[in-house]
Amino acid sequence: MTKITKQIIATSVVLLLFIALFEFSTIDTWVQDYFYHADLHQWLLKKDAEIPRLIFYDGIKRLIILSVIVTLVGSLLFRKSSLVQEYREGLLIVVLAAIFVPLLIGALKATTNIPCPNDLKHYGGTYPHITLLTSYPQNFVQTENIRCYPAGHASGGFALLSLVFLFKTKRNKVIATASALSIGWSMGLYKMLIGDHFLSHTIVTMLLAWLTILVVRKGVYSISNN
Questions:
Q1: Lesser CB count within 10 Å: N end or C end of the chain?
Q2: Distance of alpha carbon 35 from alpha carbon 117, whole angstroms
Q3: Which long-range contacts (CB under 8 A, 24 or more apart) does 40-48 make?
Q4: What digits encode the pLDDT tens for the residues 55-106?
Q5: How many CA atoms lie within 13 A of 145 on its CB side?
Q6: What is the pLDDT of residues 100-143, one digit of tens each?
Q7: How far apart are CA 124 and CA 96, in angstroms?
């Protein structure tokens, strides 16, 4: 069994353990309650606050998309250069991760039908608290599926964990990992502060992103070595 296969299995196990932890505990609401002013019926950070939205939502999302486009175009234009040749596998992993991680999270969001914190009655909304293993009450009328789980916005930040397979030295790998986690969690925490996601949503997205990256890495290296 290869090292990357072991990492895929280990990440899958950790993912299942975290899902179980949040399914059978009240950690989500315990954490989220700190971000909600019950007496004021509002979240710690207002969704329409322009500067935080510009920095942690629109700005950072556009910057990530632009960076991926520049990486892709640059790799194609200079594909014969020695630098691109040296890093071609890592560059391919980064680009594919930037595509597949958000796609996977988006597909899951479209099927899980789990509400956001601000949708819940507990926080002034109309929805009951539903998890992966629980169903809506029979008397609850839902006109359309709701898309909240896992956390979609943070997926772009966590997709940057793929940079660990681009850099060669241990120091640069550590910097890449720390930077990607910082970006992903800043995006995820912002959405928690405005009531759009629970802690579990962000953790599951992070683990799914890393799992996807590992699978992409395994595929790229398998093709390259054949």
A1: C
A2: 10
A3: 41/124, 43/118, 43/193, 43/194, 43/195, 44/193, 45/190, 45/193, 45/194, 46/194, 47/194, 47/195, 47/196
A4: 999 999 999 999 999 999 988 888 889 888 889 999 999 999 999 999 999 9
A5: 10
A6: 999 999 999 999 999 999 999 999 999 999 999 898 998 888 88
A7: 40
Torsion of CA 41, 46, 47, 48, to 10 degrees: 120
Coil/strand/helix, residue 66: helix
DSSP 8-state class, residue 127 = B
Tell me, yes or no, if the pTM score tops 0.85. yes
Residue 176 CA to residue 154 CA, distance in Å, equals 16
Burial class for 87, CB neighbours closer than 10 Å (0-12, 13-18, 19+) = middle
Contacts of 178 (CB under 8 A, 6+ apart): none
Q: CA quadruple 173, 175, 178, 183: dihedral positive or negative?
A: negative
In the three-class reduction of DSSP (H, G, I as helix; E, B as strand; rest coil), residue 36 is classed as strand
Tell how many helices (H) and how many strands (E) occur in the chain.
Answer: 8, 2
- Is residue 134 classed as helix, strand or coil in its secondary structure? coil
Helix, strand, or coil here: 17? Answer: helix
The DSSP string of 93-105 is HHHHHHHHHHHHH
